[in-house]
Amino acid sequence: MLPINHAIWVQIATGKKPIRGDNLAINMLAQKNKLSYEKDPSPANVKQLVENTHLFFTKYEAVFAADFAKILH
Amino acid sequence: MHETVNSRLESIPDVQSAIASGEPLFLAGSRAALAQLPKGNWVGGTIPYFMTEEGGQLSEDRIFVTRVKEFAIETHAADYGPEELAHLYADAPEQGITFLILPFGTAIHTAFAQKASSFDGFLLKPIVGWVAGVRVDLIGKEQPAVFNGKTGAVFEDRCVALHVTLPANLQASLDIINIFESDGGALLRFEERSFHVGKCLVDGKSVDFARYITDQNIHTEFPLVGDYNGSSINVSIQAVDAAHGKVDLYAPVVPGVDYHFAKPVYDYSEAFANAIAKGDACPDFACNCILNYLYGKLEGKKTGHITGPITFGEIAHLLLNQTMVRLYLHDIG
Predict the structure, then answer these.
(1) Is residue B243 pLDDT above 90, yes or no?
(2) B138-184, pLDDT tens digit by residue?
(3) How many CB atoms are closer than 10 A to CB B87?
(4) pTM of the model as a whole
(5) Do B173 and A64 touch (CB under 8 A)?
(6) For B231, which of B12, B31, B62, B111 is 20 to 30 Å away at the CA?
(7) CA end-to-end span of chain A, whole Å?
(8) Does A71 touch chain B (CB under 8 A)?
(9) Is the Cβ of A17 closer than 8 Å to some Cβ of chain B?
(10) What is the pLDDT of residues B272-289, one digit of tens each?
């Protein structure tokens, strides 16, 4: 998995990297990130969203490998 | 893919035997059926409708059983009130799956629907389950209930959970089969997360939602479809009161989500069969919605090869409506 300081995690966590697929959990994560960032774009919240997003991708790396590859390429 | 199929409709004596042998079980059945079970490592909830291998059926003397012994290394039955949902997530195993049942129309039902996504552990600790109900002719006369088999307690105002710790080689994922899709018509947005709607935005214009539904002659057996980045998340209409400008929903609408009404579906059984890929493995657990059962006239009909309880709401991380939920356990080596 890409390290947590990679720029892509901020893009995913803030909704700046579009995510659209058919994986329920990934889509729910993206939706939660988007709504949270719109409500609170503070650096502290972005940091928390990044940490949560990285944790999610790390946890499901084996099961959602194909879906993650499309997002992280 | 882990290939164990653990779920089926069983007789009460068979379930009693399984409990006596110490098996951890996740159960769905009528109140009368569940009340006949001894204490043990199980949780259950009331619902008498099931999708079986023979088709949809109402049964008050059999119980739908999900056996978890083959994949669980540890299980823990627990119950939670509306103010204790954070504990549900705290108790859920880091490496596992939590089966959850909420009694319909209660504060715990509302609290989960409103707050699930806000808890630490959301998505990271997968939660699958359903909403307990009653025979439809008894709605308003009999209360849905959930059972904590470990203590023997029966609740109408708390939820029950079976936390299942999985071995390191197994990982749970949840998916949904939604036969509904956007009709491509007006875009609806809502300003509050709520089960009850007065006004909403239709193509950017504030309107009385109940009047809009009435004036547009919208068929409310078809749900609102929310777009979650490509996943369609339904919200079903419970009641429309045009005189008082109020629409009641079976799940809350969420601000910031784009909604459309669904395109009509005329043959639910065929729609499910078409939506479920023939090569799909049997899930380790599945459930489907009572509204699909009733509106789709699924009694005696199948939904592909998928079986499970027919419920008053489905849970796949969030509360869902008019949706088939599937749990898969993946062998990741």
Answers:
(1) yes
(2) 999 999 999 999 999 999 999 999 999 999 999 999 999 999 999 99
(3) 14
(4) 0.96
(5) yes
(6) B111
(7) 12
(8) no
(9) no
(10) 999 997 677 889 999 999
* ipTM for the assembly: 0.96
Residue B151 to residue A35: CA distance in whole angstroms: 40
The residues, ordered by sequence, that sit 6+ positions from B5 with a Cβ below 8 Å of its Cβ are B282, B284
For chain B, the residue count is 333
Is there a contact between B46 and B26 (Cβ–Cβ < 8 Å)?
Answer: no
Residue B52 has what pLDDT?
Answer: 94
Nearest-CA distance from A22 to chain B in Å? 6
What distances in angstroms separate CA B7 from CA B55, B178, B199, B305, B327, one per listed residue? 15, 21, 43, 12, 11
Whether the Cβ atoms of residue B253 and residue B177 lie closer than 8 Å to each other: no
Give domain limits for chain A. Answer: 7-72
Number of Cβ within a 10 Å radius of residue B271: 19
The closest CB to that of B229, out of A31, A52, A60, belongs to A31
Return the closest-CA partner of residue B116 out of B143, B92, B146. B92
Q: Which of A25, A38, A60 sits opposite B317 (nearest CB)?
A: A25
